[in-house]
Every structure is written in structure tokens, then in C-alpha cells.
Amino acid sequence: VSQSRYVGHNRIQVSTAKAASYELWTSNGALLQKGQLMAGTGFVDTGHAPAGVLILRIVENNRTETFRVIK
Q1: Element (H, E) at 58
Q2: In whole angstroms, what is the distance from residue 64 CA to residue 46 CA?
Q3: Is residue 56 within 8 Å of residue 12, measured between CB atoms?
Q4: Is residue 29 packed enough to be buried (19+ CB in 10 Å), middle (13-18) or exposed (0-12)?
Q5: 12-55 pLDDT, tens per residue?
Q6: In three state form, how does the secondary structure of 15-46 look?
Q7: C or N: which end of the chain has fewer Cβ atoms within 10 Å?
């Protein structure tokens, strides 16, 4: 289970119990970036992302959670 919260204009704070992968998408379905998160608290950079609604998809142990973030 993971938690996500927007922390200003350039990053999203993500907390996961185990290592996880993530994908950051625009609301139009364009993949902006993907990467890996270590267990604990980490950050996803959104400095390059356009303003508007972003979709953050986190996969941890074959479980997928999706968050909508407004930048």
C-alpha cells in the first residue's frame, strides 16, 4: 500500500512499504517518465511536467494504485 502527496510545483512525495515502480502520465495519456522507488519515502520529480492533471501509477508487489495529482 502506498501514499502519495503533492509537495509543491516540482515533486510528489511517495511512501511505500516495499520497493515499487512508478509511471507518471498526463491526463491525455502521454507517458512523462517512469522509474523505481525504494521502500520508505521518496520523491517523483514533476518539474518537467505541464500544468494540469497528472496521473501517478505505482506498482508494488503486483498491486497497482493510481493517484490523480493537480499541478
Answers
A1: strand 53-60
A2: 20
A3: yes
A4: exposed
A5: 989 999 999 999 999 999 999 999 999 999 999 999 999 999 99
A6: EECCCEEEEEEECCCCEEEEEEECCEEEEEEC
A7: N
Q: Are 15 and 40 in contact (CB under 8 A)?
A: yes
How many residues does the structure list for the chain? Answer: 71
Q: What strands, in cross-sheet order, belong to the sheet with 20-26?
A: 31-37, 20-26, 53-60, 63-70
Output the pTM of the full model.
Answer: 0.86
Per-residue cell: 14: 511517495
Pairing of strands 2-6, 11-16: antiparallel
